[in-house]
Amino acid sequence: MMLLLRIATTHIRSRMRQTVVSIFGVALGVGFSIAMASLMEGSQRDFTATLIDAIPHVEILDEQRAPAEQPASVVYNAVAFHGLRPREDLRGIRNPTEALASLRDWVDGNMAQRLSGQAVLRYSGQDIGMNLVGVVPRRELSVSKIREDMREGSFDDLDTTANGLVIGDQAAERLGAGVGDTVTLTSANGLAKRFRIVGLFHSGITTKDEGLAYAPLKAVQILLEKPDIINSIAIRLTDIRQANDVAARAERQLGYKAISWEEANEGLMEAFFVRNVIMYTVVGAILVVAGFGIFNIVSTIVHEKARDIAILKSLGFPEGDIQQIFVLEGLVIGVLGAIAGCALGFGLSSYLATIKFEFTQDVEMTRLPIYFSTLHYAVSSVLALFSAGIAGYIPARKAARLNPVDIIRGAA
Question: 112 pLDDT band (50/70/90 cuts)?
Fold first, then answer.
């Protein structure tokens, strides 16, 4: 094998300029594919991390997977009903204390109860529709990142202020209100209650900053006329990989619909999968193009070294050895290109990671999300070697089949 390798390297050195060009082509393919993969996966991980921080890992809602069957459907075997009024039922998770206690026995993570409803916020003659969320502040802080979004005041003040209210800074700007001002919230049932703004937050999501408000759970229950009722339980797990299992077990135990973060963003996960397929397809195409350069140089060497092949065959080298020589030539170019490409890919990725962007005054300076992974280097290198091996194998078969007698006669 060492003899065959020495012969292969000798052939490669004989056409140094073409060899360098082929190695450079493979290095560019490997380098840019690594940089692209690092950027794509980094952006995906960054988006997923932001998404996971913004929503509960598991959320239990006050509804069932399948709607409850109406009594008329049970009694009468009719095709359709007209003028039927469904049985009214006050929605909500009843006895939340018992539900939370049963979940704490086995859920590894933090939980927070919530009561959400629509209300109209009025201040200085202006009205804004708000999604009002009643929370237990210390529990809400354990399942969300609202503390990091606070711009004025403190979310903890909801714990000490019975009628406290935290709203988005954009909603406050539209109303001309600020921390310490008293506003009026009116529920859909017409019940009005006065609240005092104790904090402003900014999440960067316009719909949230303009239409979301937090208040103490008891105050919201009174305003919405739902005493001792909640309509969701947010769970933040220690291990997010257990989200689907926890959601399934909680749904069986409580009878209410439980949604994991993966189920809630199923379409997004599928989009990421398709994007990864496209990314690796492009990477493969780049390396296949680089393989044509290797094919070209090995084919040229086979043509130029016809007499050498005849001599080797006359000395007793079998066809398999002749074929291995030219396959090795392709692999040597592929290995050198892969090594140079890995170095180039690391350099490109490191440079991209230093590029800074600043979009608005509210968003801090940020960088491109680059994820360094040995898997990217391994996959790109393996694809490069595979492409180099195929590019060397095709002309190697032709070289192995050459008849030394015909070569010598042709030379004569």
Answer: very high
In terms of domains, do 324 and 225 share one?
A: no
Q: How confident is the model at residue 412 (pLDDT cuts 50, 70, 90)?
A: very low
- Pairing relation of β-strands 192-201 and 164-168? parallel
**293 phi-psi bin (left φ>0, alpha ψ -120 to 50, beta other):** alpha
Q: What percent of the chain has pLDDT over 70?
A: 78
Phi, psi of 168 (to 5 degrees): -70, 150
Shared domain for 116 and 12, answered yes or no, is: no
Q: Are residues 24 and 118 in the same domain?
A: no
Whether 10 is in a domain gets the answer yes
Strands 93-94 and 229-230, sheet pairing: antiparallel
The predicted-structure confidence for 122-180, as pLDDT tens digits, reads as follows: 998 889 999 999 999 999 999 988 888 899 999 999 988 889 999 999 999 999 999 99
In order of 153, 191, 238, 316, the CA distances from 123 in angstroms are 19, 16, 41, 98
Cα angle 126, 132, 138; round to 5 = 130
For residue 167, how far is the Cα from the chain centroid? Answer: 29
Q: Are 277 and 374 in contact (CB under 8 A)?
A: no
Instruction: Let me know whether 103 and 41 are in one domain.
Output: no
d(CA 203, CA 180): 21
Q: Is residue 224 part of a domain?
A: yes
Residue ending a domain, choose from 230, 259, 285:
230
pTM, 2 dp: 0.67
**Total tally of structural domains belonging to the chain:** 2
Same domain, 31 and 107: no
Domain that holds residue 352: 2-52+268-411
Q: pLDDT over 90 for what percent of the chain?
A: 30
Residues 6 or more apart whose Cβ sits within 8 Å of residue 209: 168, 169, 170, 171, 201, 202, 203
Specify if 113 maps to a domain: yes
Which residue would you say has higher pLDDT here, 359 or 320? 320
123's tokens: 């201040």
Residue 284 covered by a domain: yes
CA distance 166 to 56: 20
